[in-house]
Amino acid sequence: MPRLLIIEDDENLALTMQDWFKSQNMDLELVKTGREGMEKLLVYSYDVVIMDWGLPDTSGVELLKDFRARGGNTPVLMLTGRSAVDDKEIGFDSGADDYLTKPFSLRELSARIKALMRRPDVIVSGLLKGHGIELDVAARKLTRNGEDIALQPLEFSLLEFFMRHPDQVFTTDALLNRVWPNDSDASVDTLRTCIKKLRRKIDLPDQDSMITNLPGVGYRFDSGKSQ
């Protein structure tokens, strides 16, 4: 049975999640502060941690940084009311594996949790690799064979999201909701244009694109592990 840790000080939200995950046959523990969360993380093992950004005694970002610095590699999904791209970058830079903006649907939360549990390799460093490219999240740099590849901020965010979720298919709506800020007027055409520009920069002329378009379904970033 999957085991979750929820670190959330909003009692109503925490209990709602608790009831939901129990109905999904998941075992979980619930704490309200960063101190309690760290105590649990240092002693027990979990499949996924759901962590609120705003905790009464610390921020989820600082808690996560501390956990990663101690060698913790459990997948972490960050919950927050912040929706700006800069805030999402801060969350990912601190070591978050996924990011969900409040309010959210419990079905989407479950889907995110299940996706994190399916991942074979947990990303615990700021260096993402695939197809001969390296994305340094902390330094905001993309390189191939040591040579820099210049990306615009949203191109970087989109590529980072893809590389954190390799071999998973995302609809256009899902990508717009998870990469672009909530108050953005971005459209499907905006996403297509961003992907087109990104492909020009990261793909090699004699190879298939790293980003696969599945007509009528969405997009997938291929991990390249089979190559």
In short:
With 227 residues, the protein is of the alpha/beta class. It is built from eight helices and twelve strands.
Biggest beta-sheet profile: 5 strands, parallel
Per DSSP, what share of the residues sits in E-state strands of 2 or more residues? 15-25%
Which strand order spans the largest sheet, edge to edge or round the barrel?
2-1-3-4-5
Number of helices, counting only DSSP H or I runs of 4 residues or more: 8
The CATH class of the largest domain, by name, is Alpha Beta
**C-alpha termini separation:** 34 Å
Helicity level: 25-40%
Describe this structure as you would to a colleague:
It is a single chain. The protein has 227 residues and is of the alpha/beta class. The chain folds into two domains: 3-118, Rossmann fold (3-Layer(aba) Sandwich), CATH 3.40.50.2300; 127-221, Arc Repressor Mutant, subunit A, CATH 1.10.10. The chain has eight helices and twelve strands. The chain has helices at 11-23, 34-43, 60-69, 85-93, 106-118, 153-164, 172-179, 188-202; strands at residues 3-7, 27-31, 48-52, 76-80, 98-101, 127-130, 133-136, 141-144, 147-148, 169-170, 211-214, 218-221. The strands form three sheets. The protein has a five-stranded parallel beta sheet with strand order 2-1-3-4-5, sandwiched between helices. Strands 6-7-8-9 form a four-stranded antiparallel beta sheet, with helices on one face. Strands 10-12-11 form a three-stranded antiparallel beta sheet. Helix 1 (11-23) links the parallel strand 1 and strand 2. Helix 6 crosses helix 8. The chain is globular. The mean pLDDT is 84.
